[in-house]
Structure formats: C-alpha cells, structure tokens
C-alpha cells in the first residue's frame, strides 16, 4: 500500500466511523463552526482541567467526509494535550494544509503525524482546505472562549 492509499484509507475510516462523535460528559467549553460553501457544520466540546490540559474533547456535526474525518482526527490528537502544545499542533496542521510543509513538532507520535498528514492532499483544492480546517479553527475558538461563531467565509 502506498502512502496515498494509506491516507485515503484513514480518511474513509474516520469519515465512516468518527471517533468521539458525541457530547462529552462535563464539558466546560464549546464552539460552533460553519462552512457555508460546502454545508459543513461542527460543534466542538471541550473539558479542560486546571493544569491547562484538554481532558476530553468531542464533536457533533454533519458535512462531507473530509470535514467529519478531520474533526474525528482532531479529537484523537488533541485529547490529553496541554493547551500550548495543542495550539502548536494546530499551527503546524494549518500550515501543512496550505503548502504541504512537514510537521515541526517532535513531540508527536508517528501515528498521530500520519493521521494528520492523511488530510494533506486537500492542499490542491482550496475549497477542501476549508472542509479540513473547519473543526480545527472551531477547536481554538472553544479553547480561547471566543464568543463568535466560526464561519469560513468571514475569516
Ligand atoms: Zn466539506
């Protein structure tokens, strides 16, 4: 299996069987996001503890396979991470979506990097970049308790 096939497999798997697709118990932060161009909607729920760690994260939403897979991958990667690390992961992820650059972070597991890299194919399709980044932008809004709703067309 080559890398491209592996990436497709990962996206299909997360799109069909999304992880953490529910409202997590005892969430204390949340945010909503909308991508009107494609019709993707996502609602991110976070439970953060006093040590600035994301104890639990989940999502609800509907949309294309890319947006669901991306939200599912997000929850898997971010769960248990400290806020500062989570933000660095987000920066790296968004950079990768834009120009295909490699991850700078050394602190991630190989399988975590591969999950995120699986979405790197969207960089050729600007519309799809919005699908893939929606959940991640929404996650930061939740973490930073911004009151506005994420809208990919009003960035
Ligand atoms: Zn979409």
**Biggest pleated-sheet summary:** 4 strands, mixed
**CATH T-level fold name:** Sufe protein. Chain: A
Q: Count the strands?
A: 4
Main sheet strand line-up? 3-2-1-4
Secondary-structure-based class equals: alpha+beta
Listed once per kind, the bound small molecules are: zinc ion
End-to-end Cα distance: 38 Å
Question: What string gives the helices and strands in order?
Answer: HEEEHHHHE
CATH architecture: Alpha-Beta Complex
Return Rg in Å.
14 Å
**Number of helical segments?**
5
How confident is the prediction overall: mean pLDDT? 93
CATH class call: Alpha Beta
Report helical residue fraction: 40-55%
Domain count: the total is 1
Any overview of this molecule?
The protein is an alpha+beta fold and 155 residues long. The protein has a single domain, classed as Sufe protein. Chain: A. The protein contains five helices and four strands, in the order αβββααααβ. The protein has a four-stranded mixed sheet, covered by helices on one side. It is globular and about 40 Å long. 37% of the residues are buried. The mean pLDDT is 93. Zinc ion (ZN) binds next to helix 2.
Short description:
This protein has 5 helices and 4 strands. The protein is an alpha+beta fold. It has a 4-stranded mixed β-sheet, with helices on one face.
């Amino acid at each position: 299996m080559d890398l491209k096939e592996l990436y497709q497999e990962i996206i299909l798997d997360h799109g069909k069987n999304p992880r953490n697709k529910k409202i997590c118990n005892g969430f204390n932060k949340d945010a909503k996001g909308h991508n009107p161009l494609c019709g993707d909607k996502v609602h991110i729920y976070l439970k953060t503890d006093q040590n600035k760690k994301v104890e639990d994260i989940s999502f609800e939403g509907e949309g294309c396979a890319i947006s669901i897979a991306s939200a599912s991958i997000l929850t898997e990667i971010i769960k248990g991470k400290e806020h500062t690390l989570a933000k660095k992961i987000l920066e790296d992820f968004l950079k990768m979506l834009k120009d295909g650059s490699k991850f700078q972070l050394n602190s991630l597991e190989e399988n975590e990097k591969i999950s995120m890299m699986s979405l790197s194919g969207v960089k050729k399709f600007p519309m799809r970049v919005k699908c893939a980044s929606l959940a991640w932008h929404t996650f930061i809004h939740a973490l930073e308790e911004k009151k506005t709703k994420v809208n990919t067309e009003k960035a």
